[in-house]
Amino acid sequence: MSETEGDKGYYAAAEATFIARRGTPFLLSPKDFALLKEWRALGIPLEAIEAGIDDAFTKREERGATGRVNSLSYCRDAILSVWERRAETAVGRGAGRAGGESLDASAALARLSERLDSVARVHPELTERIESALRSLDRLARSQKPAGEIEASLARLDRRLSNELALALSAERRLRIDSRVDELLAKARVKMDRETEEKTRRALMRRTLREELALPRLTLLAE
Questions:
Q1: 189, pLDDT greater than 70
Q2: DSSP conformation letters of the chain
Q3: Residue 197 has pLDDT above 90, yes or no
Q4: What is the pTM of this model?
Q5: What are the helix and strand counts (H, E) for the chain?
Q6: What is d(CA 122, CA 151) in angstroms, rounded to the nearest whole number?
Q7: Which pLDDT tens digit goes with each residue over 126-140?
Q8: Which of 25, 96, 124, 196 is the most buried (most CB within 10 A)?
């Protein structure tokens, strides 16, 4: 399939963002462009790519890492995470915080608990797994940890809960989710290496699971 002007603009903007955050001139490799084509085909918006690149470099700077980043694949996990987060935010938009309003971690955790409770009521077969997550949310609410530490804990809990719920689904529902993920990967029409395909598949599985169960993403920034 020939590239459109929109495709070229998408690749150029992503490349410019990566170079700007890297801090020195750089040419993306064919492997990097293959990643961009994959993300374009999957429908990952340019804004998510730009935000993911920024997140990846910001976290690297906070760790005090040295040396240069020589591949866009360094930002892959951060980009997939931003894409998931923005998909969840789009679903729940309307009850969001006003711009600049300070984050109330306790209130955000309470909202997450309410939403998980709703999922458990609709899907009682998942109650045991969800109740375990609710206990974790309660411990975080009482921990008095800074919002950044709570967010990191929520990211780990989110991955664990998604994996546990996927395993607890009926065979029919799991097959439906797996089939949807296969369709999305096929639509990308790009050849991925095994590691890239597996990480992309996991991200798509979590996203599709949320859509299937109306499951909130566990983050302080979800609403």
A1: no
A2: -PPPHHHHHHHHHHHHHHHHHH-S-----HHHHHHHHHHHHHT--HHHHHHHHHHHHHHHHHHT--S----GGGGHHHHHHHHHHHHHHHHHTTSPPPTTPPP-HHHHHHHHHHHHHHHHHH-GGGHHHHHHHHHHHHHHHHH---HHHHHHHHHHHHHHHHHHHHHHS-HHHHHHHHHHHHHHHHHH-----HHHHHHHHHHHHHHHHHHHHTPPP-STT--
A3: no
A4: 0.58
A5: 9, 0
A6: 26
A7: 999 999 999 999 999
A8: 196
Instruction: List the structure tokens of 195.
Output: 């590691």
What's the pLDDT at 161? 93
